[in-house]
Amino acid sequence: MKTVYRDAILLLMMCLFWAINYPLVKIAVMYENEFYVLFFRILFALILSLILFPRSLILEGSLKTQIKLFTLSMLNIVGFMEFWFIGEMTESASISSIIIYSYPLIVVLLSIFFLGERVKALNFLGIIIGLFGIFLIFSEEIQVHSIEGLLFLILSALSWSFGTIFYKKYLKGIEPVKINTMQFIYALPVTFIFAIISGPIDFSKLNMYFFAVTIYMGTLGTSIAWFIYLILYRKYSVSKISSYLFLVPALSVISSFLILKESLNIFTFIGLGTIMFGIYLSQNSNFKN
Fold this sequence. Notes:
- About 80% of the residues lie in helices and about 0% in strands.
- It is an all-alpha fold.
């Protein structure tokens, strides 16, 4: 029972760390574009991982192992985040959140086909209700500007979903701490290339505020949060964890209100309640199972 409570605390920490990234990204892009923000985020994530776990490098692993780690990095970090940023170049943060956080539904469906997991109808219903809660929160700001942008957001959600499945299916024998470090190592040069392509960096804008924000996003918001993600998905089924990810956009709305003073409305509170009910329904199904 103590382990369950500990894992529940870790899950809430992961969701909170990711949620706080949302308003901080809005601050960071005031100084530099999203692609450089992501590069520094991954850089600081890697630095923290190496400081905390200096022996987490797996350079002695076989070529097959390295290919698997590279693939996970491209799915979990590069594809997920780069496609997200490209999509948000034309689409609003609201439509982005709805598309990206279709993840719980997508990954549960994939887990049935690729992992052979059994999922009850009540679990599906809870996930759909949770996704509807996200829709309610952002319902007043939904507007699609570009089909291309929408497609990139869908690719982002798919990349994250397939990354989860790939991790559970092919990387069972490697410690999460080592996987975490290596996915940042492989992602760093690729995110740097994307940043360079996006345009030259303006060093005059990289002040203490920019680095304070990106250091948080890289350390707690990326390195620690992804480490928790890897630990929890190693221990539990996809359907057991995925619905809780609806807490991320829910908490991001609250953190944006506290940090950026963004307004809340009646749909925000109805949406939050709907998300909590969806999570309860989904997890109640898991407990009965």
